[in-house]
Amino acid sequence: MIAIVGKPNVGKSTLLNALVGQKISITSRKAQTTRHRITGIRTVGPTQFVFADTPGFQTRHGNALNRSLNKTVQGAVGDVDLVLFVVEAGSFNQADEQVLKLLAQGVPVLLIANKLDTIKHRAELAPWLQEMQHRFERLGAKAEMVPLSAKNPKDVERLLGLCEKYLPEQDWWYSEDELTDRSEKFLASEIVREKLFRLTGDELPYTSTVVIDKFEEEPGKTASRFVKIAATIIVERDGHKAMVIGDKGERLKRIGMEARQELEKLMDAKVFLELWVKVRSGWADDEARVRSFGYE
Ligand SMILES: Nc1nc2c(ncn2[C@@H]2O[C@H](COP(=O)(O)OP(=O)(O)OP(=O)(O)O)[C@@H](O)[C@H]2O)c(=O)[nH]1
């Protein structure tokens, strides 16, 4: 069991998807895309890797949504064999420091210095890596430094080999072909949320969310599956609703189309997807609402 932790936007979900070999956690340029603990499974030969992706640890806003996200992170690092602590290569700031403080004593850590491809002069990274090593030593923590790019398949394969050394010998938890413990219904809401964030860019606040109202598989008349999904995009203000719908409904249509195509591939089914947009002001500050929208 391996937890993937780090501040928002360092590439945790990108790394998880690469490690698992299939997209199971959504990613975007927007920070705070991941909202839930997502388990990804990869079985290679005799070894089963169970990865837990976590939301980026929040340090700025203390609202109910962020408190819930941070609880998810804390829960994930407690009981694992190994932690992948993801940072951006060459950088370590206050937000990274906060994550470091969460790490349980005694659990081995790989410091993943991600986005190595963005560093022009690799030699310049050496003093930074040394400084990182010292930082861990001062805490009495064991850590191995692993500079890599989550977007480079060779780096990801090498990382799997490094992780393997830390895993105990025990029975597998999942069958060989399982990739995630999350349901298709959950993945559907995540994929709609990813398209929503990607197609609205920085204009839409991260407090928008997606709730699945209906997820029904039609009894098969033919060999292929047919799934009917209705989802509501929840936003904070009327202005955001207009932004999501777009000119003559163009943007909402595009969100629906891209999400449907990806879901059809993922579920190997014909998908009928219906999208609605609703305004619910202040939901991210309201504990009960945060829970009712599926956050722990
Ligand atoms: N250049 C480069 N970009 C990367 C790499 N890994 C991830 N990214 C980009 O970094 C951005 C954030 O990636 P995510 O995987 O969504 O990051 P995250 O840490 O899961 O983010 P949160 O959900 O906010 O916690 C995306 O635009 C990725 O494409 C990498 O190795 N190199």
From TrEMBL:
One of its GO terms (biological process) is ribosomal small subunit assembly. Residues 1-169 form the Era-type G domain. Residues 6-13 are annotated as: G1. Residues 148-150 are annotated as: G5. One of its GO terms (molecular function) is ribosomal small subunit binding. It comes from the Bacteria. NCBIfam families: era, PRK00089.1, small_GTP. Belongs to the TRAFAC class TrmE-Era-EngA-EngB-Septin-like GTPase superfamily. Era GTPase family. An essential GTPase that binds both GDP and GTP, with rapid nucleotide exchange. Plays a role in 16S rRNA processing and 30S ribosomal subunit biogenesis and possibly also in cell cycle regulation and energy metabolism. Monomer. This is GTPase Era. It comes from Hylemonella gracilis ATCC 19624. The lineage of its organism: Bacteria, Pseudomonadati, Pseudomonadota, Betaproteobacteria, Burkholderiales.
